[in-house]
Design goal:
258 residues, mainly alpha, 10 helices, 0% strand
Length: 258
């Protein structure tokens, strides 16, 4: 299933019995810097039950590897790339916001011309998606033209540093900018995903952060289960309490309710 490469993908079902040891080993290795980016991606693919831990622990490590290997600023999407999915959608709202941020300190004609074209292109895609009669099949020609404009913009050569940085990112991620025009259930932003992870971030901040790797792992698992249950319309506290009662009685945790 296609989906945004957003923090929402972190919320996987709780790990199955017997995987905690391997999950902790993966997290520890990632924190110690012993996993390459390729190894992390492979682990996430082979062990989807530990995506939560691998995502939280390895995100910054991946960004550091990118900076060291390529001598460039780490990609803002680097942590999300550790989550395996059949397709991805990068947040256009964040990209538009970055254009506005660069506008504040870069008024070169080269940057202004590039930013104007990219901003118009992204907004054209968003405007097309918002049409009441939009369907991917009936608008295939328009979508192809948008992708062609994006490809042309990505191969432009520039002198300005900000423009070079953005065109390089476009070349790397162009296929993931208009995914929302191929799937009607994929949004062009990850605001919903950020809202899902926000309660866990606020809780961590108000409680003076996690004091240990074990505490971080525990919070990752509990928040994954809690938010999953909440999104499914269930009472997380009652459901978790019932699951613990079942575990004390039978020695096995029940499956995550659908």
């Amino acid at each position: 299933q296609a989906g945004a490469i957003a923090p929402a993908l972190v919320y996987q079902p709780v790990m199955q019995p017997g995987t905690a040891k391997s999950a902790n080993a993966i997290m520890d290795a990632a924190v110690r810097g012993e996993l390459s980016r390729a190894q992390t991606l492979r682990l996430c693919k082979d062990h989807p039950e530990v995506v939560t831990l691998a995502f939280l622990a390895a995100g910054r490590r991946i960004a550091e590897l990118q900076r060291r290997d390529h001598e460039q600023q780490p990609s803002p999407s680097a942590p999300y790339e550790s989550v395996c999915a059949e397709d991805r959608q990068y947040c256009l709202v964040h990209l538009l916001r970055e254009l506005e941020k660069v506008d504040q300190h870069n008024n070169s004609p080269e940057w202004q011309a590039f930013a104007k074209k990219l901003r118009r292109l992204l907004r054209d895609g968003i405007r097309l998606r918002k049409r009441d009669d939009f369907t991917p099949d009936s608008n295939r020609g328009r979508v192809d033209r948008l992708n062609k404009r994006l490809a042309d913009l990505a191969i432009e050569e520039h002198v300005d540093a900000d423009t070079r940085r953005l065109t390089k990112r476009l070349r790397q991620y162009a296929e993931y900018l208009f995914t929302f025009l191929d799937y009607t259930d994929v949004p062009f932003e990850n605001i919903f995903a950020e809202r899902q992870i926000r309660p866990a971030v606020i809780l961590r901040k108000n409680s003076q952060s996690n004091r240990s790797k074990r505490g971080a792992a525990t919070q990752a698992i509990l928040m994954s289960v809690y938010r999953t249950l909440k999104l499914r319309g269930l009472d997380p506290t009652k459901t978790i309490a019932d699951a613990l009662k079942t575990y004390l009685t039978t020695g096995q945790l029940p499956s995550l309710p659908a």
